[in-house]
């Protein structure tokens, strides 16, 4: 399947990739590099993107050997800040437009991302519509490569981040309708940075200043045993209450609160 992905890249001749440094966009970036075509990885650095993820993306881009352009933006678009249920649509729309602008300035006429076959089928992922409207190509989805197959291929081709836990922008930790502020994002980022030193997969969901911790089900017992230590740290960060979700981590759990 990887050979097919590389051949798809060769057919395009050049490509700019929306690059987060996650498994999917890394696989797309590596296939473009291996195709020997003109390519660039474009990373969006904003308050919604954890700093540790930016550092990771730079490490992976260097590993692949692909040119990376980092676009810094310290503001949050008003439509995104209001946090409607289709927040991802506005964020992706803005990102797709910037991706195209930078790509064209660099002499590139094709625009791709790392959306996989599972992403495009997800009814809660409003970003798919925005990307399609802007003509962003989804090479993994086109070849019907889902998340688990992408990991398998990434491992086979030697990507060091093949087993990296999935991540999403920090806004996904805040319930729809609750305003996204820089203060909340900074608290979430600091809290998750602390928790990831103990747990493989973490989400710190936030309701105003109430923190709800999601870890993998196998780690819930450990989280409970560390209760006092965790509560102390999160209160120092600024949270008023701290809880552990007994259902454990699950992707898109905030959608249940719509």
Describe the protein in words:
- This protein is α/β, with parallel strands linked by helices.
- It folds into two domains: 155 residues, HUPs (Rossmann fold, 3-Layer(aba) Sandwich); 88 residues, Alpha-Beta Plaits (2-Layer Sandwich), CATH 3.30.70.
- Helix content is 45%, strand content 14%.
- The chain has a four-stranded parallel sheet, sandwiched between helices. It has a three-stranded mixed sheet with strand order 5-6-7.
- The mean pLDDT is 93.
Defining traits:
single chain; 258 residues; alpha/beta; Rossmann fold; Alpha-Beta Plaits; 2 domains; 4-stranded parallel sheet; 3-stranded mixed sheet; 14% strand; globular
Brief overview, please?
It is built from twelve helices and seven strands. The protein is α/β, with parallel strands linked by helices and about 260 residues long.
- Note poorly predicted spans: none
Structural class, by secondary structure, is: alpha/beta
Mean pLDDT: 93
| Major β-sheet strand ordering | 3-2-1-4
Strand composition percent: 5-15%
- CATH top level of the largest domain is Alpha Beta
The main pleated sheet reads as:
4 strands, parallel
